[in-house]
Amino acid sequence: xxxxxxxxxxxxxxxxxxxxxxxxxxxxxxxxxxxxxxxxxxxxxxxxxxxxxxxxxxxxxxxxxxxxxxxxxxxxxxxxxxxxxxxxxxxxxxxxxxxxxxxxxxxxxxxxxxxxxxxxxxxxxxxxxxxxxxxxxxxxxxxxxxxxxxxxxxxxxxxxxxxxxxxxxxxxxxxxxxxxxxxxxxxxxxxxxxxxxxxxxxxxxxxxxxxxxxxxxxxxxxxxxxxxxxxxxxxxxxxxxxxxxxxxxxxxxxxxxxxxxxxxxxxxxxxxxxxxxxxxxxxxxxxxxxxxxxxxx
Length: 297
Prior knowledge:
This protein has 297 residues and is an alpha+beta fold. It is built from 9 helices and 18 strands. It has a single domain, classed as Fumarylacetoacetase-like, C-terminal domain (Fumarylacetoacetate hydrolase, domain 2). The two termini are 33 Å apart. 45% of the residues are buried.
């Protein structure tokens, strides 16, 4: 990931960096970002931004998201790539969200699981849920594209992923602007054993990624199943969508080494300490993950 630090933020391009909160005080993207970071540190929920900041919308939410990124980098956090969420269109009616969103992932939120087995402490997370995803590792910078084949030409490996999403709004109730600003709901990402791609494998994978069958288990019980086509027709298409959106925003590039998770193929399920969850990706040729949870809730 490369942020373009000399590029104006979306709100600066609009010539409008200040908003007014419902209690008569000026609210900047930096101030809202600081409030969300404090909620993350304190593991608490907040009132909806869309109900407390008049006119708060998705473009302003990205102003906040990139202000969070700047503050995290100042704290020593290192960006490692991106998550793109709400690519599973079957979930849009449930959450009242009608478009994908994206957010950075970090050295402190991404875990690579040797042998696709890992343990994760849930204590720092708020209302955590688990999602089954396909993760991409880029071998070179990815320009804006709408072609899955182009995405795979720039991909070094793919892997199974568990994204642990979290929500800083009570009851997982929000509008698109709220969840976008609040870290894109990102809490943690566990990456399984990479499948390094060959030229032959890339060509075959274009089709395989449109029809992969994924199974999610808690213990020995099947909790959910899904088909990869629900993710904007293919996880590769979801990554292409991200490339176009970042290009349009003009705030970051996809670069070699980026780790990108492309959205949940199953539903997002609540998780608690003491549970062990596993994933299976059928004939896709990637090893599923076994993830155990510790911590206190």
